[in-house]
């Protein structure tokens, strides 16, 4: 049986990932790939706990993959299905370094204000503060994806696109979450920070929490604040590696669909906080065309 082009490419990505894990001695992938690159039968729960279908079967059934009759498990050499990879866009690293330098210079007073506002919420705690400044590698990846998605953009637009060179996380007890979110917003506004983007995803099937994006009135530096319950924060940490893989594999929709399903399964177990529907939708400020 020869798989469709989409299925072959999807499995090749999975196979390569598992092979790398085997090379590192990874327990999840150990023994799952035969030397000829075929897809043997194996216990899917070793990679996706709680699932009763093998990963290649899940890929085969994913959206955009042509249905195939049951036959041999092996994928014949996909010599004729290799898709040429475009050269990555050129990144102005010097410009990115200057943006990071500005963020680092702006960070101390922003961090002090954000921590004060979070700690003024009863039970509120800033978490993950050691990762509040984005590193150059992930920053460059985000800029590269932006250029690919916006081929007519300028390098300045691409370098300014990530709104989270500085990012913070607040963890608030579930019983005080709703009032805590409202208090954080009013507290930051009282310090003259401007809100330019707001995402409340407690009613979604995936990520649970509030993500807010702000501008520093002194320097124009933008930053992100995520607001979680203890339960949603734990889920976000657990799911983060899946999120990163989804971003890097956007060109393989069948694999992304499998990963999204796994992300949704993690967040499906997160309980919504008391009174979450009463979280006030704050007024958005238009700043320098940001939205």
Q: Which characteristics define this entry?
A:
alpha+beta, 5 strands, 291 residues, 8 helices, 10% strand, five-stranded mixed beta sheet
What does this structure look like?
The structure is a single chain. This protein has 8 helices and 5 strands. Helix 2 (55-61) packs across helix 8 (253-268) and helix 7 (230-248) runs antiparallel to helix 8. The protein is of the alpha+beta class. Mean pLDDT is 77; it is low at 21-85.
Which structural class is indicated by helix and strand composition?
A: alpha+beta
| Major sheet strand order | 1-2-5-4-3
* Mean pLDDT across every amino acid position: 77
Strand count: 5
- Helical coverage, percent range: 40-55%
Any idea what the radius of gyration is? 22 Å
Q: Output the number of helix runs.
A: 8
Biggest pleated sheet: 5 strands, mixed
- Compute the separation of the termini in Å: 50 Å
Q: How would you describe the shape?
A: globular
Please outline what is shown here.
It contains 8 helices and 5 strands; from the N terminus they run αααβααβαβββαα.
